[in-house]
User: What shape does this take?
Amino acid sequence: MSGSERTEVAHSHEDDLARRLSTDVSTAVRTPKVGQWVVSIIVLLLAAFVIRGLAINSAIQWGEVRSYLTFRSILLGVRLTLILTVVSMAIGIVGGALLAVCRLSSIRLLRSAAWLYVWIFRGTPLLVQILFWFNLAIFLPRITIGIPFGPSFGGWSTNSVVSALTASILALALNEAAYMCEIVRGGLLSVPPGQTEAAKSLGLSRRKTMTQIVFPQAMRFIVPPTGNQVIGMLKGSSLVSVIAVGELLYSAEVIYDQNGKLIPLLVVVSIWYIIATSVLYVIQYYVERHYGRGFKATTLPKGRIATYLASRRTRPTQTPSYTTEDHV
Amino acid sequence: MTTNPTIVMTSAPLVQAVNVQKHFGGTVVLDSVSLEISAGEVVVIIGPSGAGKSTFLRTLNQLERIDGGSIWIDGQLLGYKYVGNTVRHCSEKEIIQQRRMLGMVFQQFNLFPHMTVLQNVRYAPVQVSGEKEADATQRARDLIKLVGLESRVDYYPSQLSGGQQQRVAIARALAMRPRLLLFDEPTSSLDPELVGDVLAVMRTLAQQGQTMVIVTHEMEFALDIADRIVFMADGKILEVGTPEQIRNEDETPRLRAFIGRLRKES
Assistant: This one.
């Protein structure tokens, strides 16, 4: 605010008033934002530099990348990675939900047992757990089914039951269950207690209250972190390559150990992981939207992909908006 | 009144609470509360906060356990049963069965946010009573109309005002055809201009002969709608009387002070 402007404004009271009445900010002229332009140009330059570097880098050998991208053993690796992710995640989610219910149980011992489980499986590295399950036979040579301290109904040698693949699934799933337990528990606790009371007062059983009232509402809080867990699991499953399970990373390792084309194959692996995680993002969006129904404040803004998909099919559903017209 | 209740009475009141005791830790919340409510009666419970009004209401539909005494509804001992001469705890199933005699409307509405208005009202009749979907839908629509929200059947609770939500909650409770309807401060979390709609619905129900127990701070409404007013303080029932008796104020000093304070506020 300069001195000359101030005197100009203050120079006559009527002028001042007239000016105020005639001022309309909608006619304001935008000041060019030089800073934004400078930053944008720098970012574009850097991006061009990186892309050019990647494109002409001789170590990457884009031709090799292209041919290995759909190589048979790589595709089999992708398949096994997806299977590992889906199976381990499914067991992990179910196990986590059961653990969460145990942790909220009224039976003290059940609460403690679930807590102990989470404490151990979250407190040790996944890689260590994978090695443990893989070498299970060393400290547990036979697996028997029976009543503890009582009769047994049969048994098998551990090595015949726990293959490298089973060990991988066990390790990934049991570890995941510990994390999912905390996610589900948080979700269940975030549903207001009034919901349970309302269900009770309507005569609902405990099981129906849990499955039809509490869980659907808890899902809103459970789905987003679970999506992250699935993406983490997809990538984390590459750890089982250390016990020679032929998932995506191990399949690539086998090839580059023979031909030495390390970088092209790692690029191939990365491309497949990026494709898979991108697909998961889209799935997560739709699942979140499904469980967000009825909650206006958290209704997700439509992403670009979703907007595009929506534009391809017309949807007749319209959300009614809240009006106050019928208050008399 | 501390006479022993007989188990079966021919003209028994719908609700009979006998020397009900309740404490949270060392704090006594209900101290020997006894009250009888007949079918068709509208009883309003008033009193300062912390008096035990809501707790008493919640013991009626067993959201709170009682620590002593007994509550009888329609001849049934709540939460317990006689096996020979011993009193035993009811199973979860039996408690659920007993709860179905009562409906409850909460201060915070507690509508199911993931269901539309229609789904909220229709839900329990289908899931709990096993009514046919079509019948339950028709009845739900009638009830939604009764509370004046027929234009909102497919809305989610988050799209409604507080007053509208509370009216849906009343319809939802009515859908289970309760013998007794409990209201726990139904207008306390509403904006003042929305209170009237809810009270109007409650008036209609009273006229239709619905038995109701209402905890409220709306003194004028209480005097207007109640057959009897119960005044509670410190976990005890200090006064029971018709609105006329309460209005005349020749009662306990606590009640006089309480009503005086309410008058000053409004």
User: Anything to note?
Assistant: Chain A has 15 helices and two strands. The CA atoms of residues 20 and 26 of chain A lie 14 Å apart. Confidence is low (pLDDT under 50) at residues 297-302, 314-328 of chain A.
